[in-house]
Fold this sequence. Notes:
By secondary structure, the chain is mainly beta. About 5% of the residues lie in helices and about 30% in strands. The chain contains one helix and 17 strands. The protein has one helix at about 145-155; strands at about 30-35, 40, 45, 60, 70, 70-75, 95-105, 115-125, 135-140, 140-145, 155-160, 170-175, 180-190, 195, 200-210, 215, 250.
Amino acid sequence: MASRRLLGAVVIGGALASSAGCVDNTVSIFIRQVQAPTASGTTCTLSSDPTGLTVPVGRFDVAVANHYTIAPLIANQMISRANADQLRVETTFFSVEGFVVELHQDSPDGPLVGPAFTVYQNTIVPPGASAGTPGYAYTQLEVIPTQIGLQLKNTVCALDMRGVTSDCPVPAIQSNDRSIVAKLTAFGNSLGQHSIESAPFYYPIHVCCGCLLRFPTDADAPDMTHPGPDCLLGTATIDAAGCNPGQDFGLDCRLCSNSNPLCQPRGFSVSGTGTCPR
């Protein structure tokens, strides 16, 4: 079973749980997959439907984002035991208390990327209706916290600052991509007060610098308006990429061009002189 000790812990939400003993049970509870968000208008939603959209492999663009969040779908294979005729209450709901997270370089057995840590939270997973039909619930979990994200940015983003000025703020970018495997173990208690830990779930994350940025041709203002390449024209359509900018989905540069110089194309001039290096 995974250790619940805090090793350089990152604690997000919820109170610290007690260190009660664990039932050696990695079958009743498991992490099935990572859910993908959907966007409608300006609203992003997630679903507990196991047949819904998933993110099988994560992509983390450190040019845009400093942290990486996922929505694991947790399955509860314990079967409902409630019985009104026998006045028997339900005891097989599973209360997730948190996750032990390890980040490994390249493979599940690779060296740790930063210390292991524990994220504490509270999510209730309903029991299954029958054998072979688990109950499901998703939660949201930051698996690459900001301090590790910034460290990754320093190694993945190679920025050539030659020619960069206040008027020409965009450096040349080279991405030294890395592969991270996140190992997640959920732990908690059934309402019957049985402590349970899930089997480890391994989630690959591709880390890059600028790989998710998209520069649509209709975002480039005409030279009569702003000479040289830019991302200033029109408004981006909000889609799943806007739910967590910088992760998993291609990102329209207009969603970040006003706040992040790396979201402007190389050669962009603030004043519009059109003379910046490309």
